[in-house]
Amino acid sequence: MQKKFFLLLIFVHILLAFCFLSDLSFWVMFTITFTLLSIAVIRYGQMDSKSFSLLNITIAVLSGLLMYGLFWIGKTGSAMLFPTQLTDVAALYTKVQPQLAWHYFALFLIVIPGEELFWRGYIQKKIESEVENKLLVIVISSLLYMSANIYTLNPLFLLATFAGGMVWGALYMWNRNILLTILSHLVFNLFLLVLYPIF
User: Fold this and answer.
1) I need a surface site. Which of 8, 67, 84, 154 has the fewest CB within 10 A?
2) What is each CA distance from 62 to 37, 67, 123, in whole angstroms?
3) Mean pLDDT (whole number) for 105-111
4) How far is CA 174 from CA 27, 49, 62, in A?
5) Cα separations (Å) of 129 from 11, 46, 74?
6) What residues contact 49, with CB distance under 8 A and at least 6 apart?
7) How far is the C-alpha of 65 from the C-alpha of 100, rounded, in Å?
8) Cα 146 to Cα 16, 133, 163, distances in angstroms
9) How far is residue 161 CA from its own chain's centroid?
10) Helix 3-21 vs helix 26-44: crossing angle, to nearest 10
């Protein structure tokens, strides 16, 4: 794979380490991180986007709701099996929960599109150019997505990001439309952080 691929992976790890481990404002750093990554992807990648059909939009919305449902089931099960770690996840979600109006703006217009552009539109596509097995492509890209969230220091959150990577990676592999993965991710976060927060 190209040197740019590995440099961008290192870059995202450094930026997310600052987001989660430093005393700097989380939302300022998170917004800067995904603004820079979006710029890099637009500069070095090729975007896949197609026109929307009602079926595709429905699948994107349902996959976002599916992710929310998986998180709800995971939270319910974790409350019984891992109550201490669930407390840590709740503390993490308190940190990442949007509080101010500009946090919501940043989340829905910069962070979520930036995550999908970077992880599915760039990283997954690069892996696909080297690996033929589609399932393996999705698993590798999901593991890389999970690895960049290691700075949350929370195993349950890492499992959750891996699950998200698998769902959005499969959606992108199926349709090759980055706009649909962005829509699915938006629906998921709309329910998780705004309409019906789990924590």
Assistant:
1) 84
2) 27, 9, 24
3) 96
4) 32, 13, 15
5) 21, 13, 33
6) 177, 178, 179
7) 25
8) 12, 20, 9
9) 7
10) 170
Q: Model confidence over 9-18: pLDDT tens digits?
A: 999 999 999 9
pLDDT in tens, 16-44: 999 999 878 899 999 999 999 999 888 87
**Which residues, 6+ apart, have CB-to-CB distance to 119 below 8 Å?**
141, 144, 145, 165, 168, 169
For 156, the token pair is 């349950």
Q: Alpha carbon 61 to chain centroid distance? A: 16
Residue 23 has which token pair?
Answer: 């005393």
User: Which amino acid is located at 158 in the chain?
Assistant: L
Average pLDDT over residues 93-107: 90
Q: At what angle do helices 155-175 and 54-81 cross, to 10 degrees?
A: 160
Domain boundaries in the chain? 3-195
* Helix boundaries (H) for 82-128: 83-96, 101-106, 112-118, 125-128
Q: 35 versus 89: which is more confidently predicted? A: 35
Residues whose CB falls within 8 Å of the CB of residue 34, separated by 6 or more in sequence, listed in order: 110, 111, 113, 114, 115, 118
- pLDDT number for residue 139: 98
> Is the confidence at residue 1, as pLDDT, over 70?
no
